[in-house]
Amino acid sequence: xxxxxxxxxxxxxxxxxxxxxxxxxxxxxxxxxxxxxxLACGEEPVPHAAGMPWxxxxxxxxxSLLFKTNQVGRYIPAQLLKTDVQIAVTGIIAxxxxxxxxxxxxxxxxxxxxxxxxxxxxxxxxxxHLRMKVGERTIVGDIKERAEAKKVYEQAKQEGKRASxxxxxxxxxxxTSVANIAPGDKITVEIEYxxxxxxxxxxxxxxxxxxxxxxxxxxxxxxxxxxxxSHGWSLDTDRVTDASRxxxxxxPPHHGMINPVSLTIDLAAGFPLGKVESEYHDILTxxxxxxxxxxxxxxDHVPANKDFQLTWQxxxxxxxxxxxxxxxxGDSAYAFLMVTPPRSxxxxxxxxxxxxxxxxxxxxxxxxxxxQAKAALLLALHRLTAQDRFNVIQFNSxxxxxxxxxxxxxxxTLRRAVHYVEQLHANGGTEILPALKMALKGTPPSTHLRQVxxxxxxxxxxxxxxxxxIRSQLGxxxxxxxxxxxxxxxxxxxxxxxxxxxxxxxxxxTSEVKAQMDAIFRKLERPVLTDLHVExxxxxxxxxxxxxPDLYDGEPVVAALKTRTIPTNVIIKGSxxxxxxxxxxxxxxxxxxxxxxxxxxxxxxxxxxxxxxxGQDESRTRQAVLDVALAHHLVSKYTSLVAVDTxxxxxxxxxxxxxxxxxxxxxxxDYQAIFGLPKTATSWQLQILLGLATLVAAGLLxxxxxxxx
Amino acid sequence: MSPIRTTPRTLxxxxxxxxxxxxxxxxxxxxxxxxxxxxxxxxxxxxxxxLAEETxxxxxxxxxxxxxxxxxxxxxxxxxxxxxxxYGRTLxxxxxxxxxxxxxxxxxxxxxxxxxxxxxxxxxxxxQDDEIMLETAAxxxxxxxxxxxQIVDARTASIDLPDGEDQLVLxxxxxxxxxxPGGALRYVVTAVEIDVQRNRTTVxxxx
Lengths: 709, 207
What we know:
Chain A is of the alpha+beta class. In chain A, 24% of the residues lie in helices and 33% in strands. Chain A is built from 13 helices and 36 strands. In chain A, strands 4, 5, 7, 8, 12, 15, 17, 18 and 19 form a nine-stranded mixed beta sheet that branches. In chain A, strands 23, 24, 25, 26, 27, 28 and 29 form a seven-stranded mixed beta sheet that branches. The longest helix of chain A is centred in the C-terminal third of the chain and has 25 residues, at 684-708. Mean pLDDT of chain A is 84; it is low at 1-76. Chain B is α+β, with helices and mostly antiparallel strands. Chain B has helices at residues 8-53, 88-91; strands at 67-73, 78-84, 96-97, 109-113, 131-136, 140-153, 167-173, 185-198. An eight-stranded mixed beta barrel of chain B has the order 1-2-3-4-7-8-6-5. In chain B, strand 2, helix 2 and strand 3 (96-97) form a beta-alpha-beta unit. Chain B starts with 7 loop residues before the first helix and ends in a 9-residue tail after the last strand. The model of chain B is unreliable at 200-207 (pLDDT under 50). Classes of the chains: A alpha+beta, B alpha+beta. The interface between A and B is large, with 66 and 76 residues.
């Protein structure tokens, strides 16, 4: 404490002591007001070694299955859930078989289990097959309307039959339910989906997400007492009505990693390959004699705690300018085309820009994500030029803006911005809405292009609400999303950029920051290919996307077509500013390829869902989506896959216990910042003590007044 | 010589400044304490309405929280309204329900947190087998008996939410009489449910 008891001495000594006293006191007083923030029960995150927790046999209290390890007397508990992933890439179409093995580890005769697992898939995945494997038998799943599929599953569950159900929660989030797993037994659920590989700036990439990160759920909980507790850690709210379905329980990181994943990829790129890389996992690559690559993880299993990403580049001189496939199915013909416009490498005359940076500083960003976001933002600040204007907005539970108005770039404003960004730290909720509105508000000088750069992990449950705001309030701005962290919500990143007429980028590690920011700046600074349209189609042909979006540097035109007879050629036209661009694509003799109908159907569903955001009423959208999804066997918001075994296995007098499968916390995230408890002490005693001490000091000074004179 | 000359005039100004700062600090400190007390009166009223109307009632118009349960400890004359959400801004008014745990009244482990120097000061007096009651908006009262109290390090410990066990966990900062807030230690009281009373019949809804 401070020396607030000192006796009267000689005036000179007293005066010195007084000054000394004040020097001590002043900083103390000045931060007293900020105490509650500074001293918020600051739980420092304690890094825990990743890997499986070891336990001795005596530690086992439940009847869990154990695996032997190399060390004598040491076992690891059997995993309740294992995932195996096999991806086959042919050209730019990828088909994935996902095997989820649900284990009921109990040894008690009557412990029948139901497992519920919420898991991510790529946001463009078209899920079209479900197979349930029980021992040697395989039961193939049917596509049904969602409510009906649920009913079929529930009934089978009640009757004691083995059953499984795959439902879509979000385009990139699904739930598998498996009923009546016998004690000590397992059921494997096999899901198949198709997606297309992303092509961007000369690189092909494929992402396989492994974990649904904890989402922030805004709104007021809708409480229903006496309802069975739902499986998520959040209650449903008025703004996220399915919150309890999208918030799977999270394993605290110090309890060890769960949900092991094994993964292999068979890559037939269709051209000689240059670099093949996996940014976040170690891989082994074996080249087959026919040019295919066989890729597997270096480790047998990795924990499901971050996205897997494979990127590959064509060997120099083999960069495809157009990829075209076709498929004949019954009366219909399908075509797929991907055309890469030429890239200009000459320096561009720069247009002045007004750039609004928005950075997410919520609790889910705590850890490595906020460091990546800050590094990216600092890099971006240094790319601004003197003719630009800019502002920085941060948001967590509240939104805070650096300047009340966007400022011109000067050494002073830049210095303030850099200082501001360096001070950011992550904590609190993810209230994106007000930040988004603030970022889209405001009109730049007519000479300036307005670009909003949004850095976030997108870990929210109210995506649709946000898309509506972007769609309706975009104005002349363009929105560019940068997905930060090891397991970002890619559905949010992609769709937000789509509605924002910008483009999205992922930054998953600090080492990627520079390359990815360079890539995004190429896009921001170069002219955009606009007014794209396809000529040579008949009126009855259905092409998706219905309107081809503007393209940024290095992005291809991608379209899917359903028609009766494939046209010989189509012509794609567009313009780079005032310079027209035209290319002719030959469809007639393109190679045949399976799966195009699935791709087309998935694009149609996406397009129908978007139309609903543009004002079409939900019942019409629902019916239109149902028609496509049921015809093409696809899981959607309104359709699910369900598989039911023929004979009951569980005696109906035995009860069934439901287990919500836990998920890992995404790598680099801070458990305390998301699920930690708040500080549970106030500063009232401290403040009163401080106040009293200050009053005593005031009194003493008053007393000194005469002596000094 | 010091550039600042200590004249009677500067001393008067300084003492007035110190007086102001002192009063401000005492005011703020008292306000925190008063707020914690006063809010509970408003909350009791909101709680009666919650029970009557069976919906969430905001205790004051601009509140971003609402009462979810009433916590009583008859032996310690404690009667507190529990708020939704365990955030700093709600804990100023009452103990908060941690949303990652079971909702008060539903089966499982319910975690409540409170400030060690206001609402949850009484935790230090709780002994084994003390009775705690938790009344929910649906009119269900769950009775719990204190099983144990322990001091944990918030940086390493975590509260288990075992399946199939109905318990109440009360958490506050530790030590109770520390002046400076912000330590890493937590005082955790675990109480186990002994029975459930339904004050009125609730309509079963089928899903």
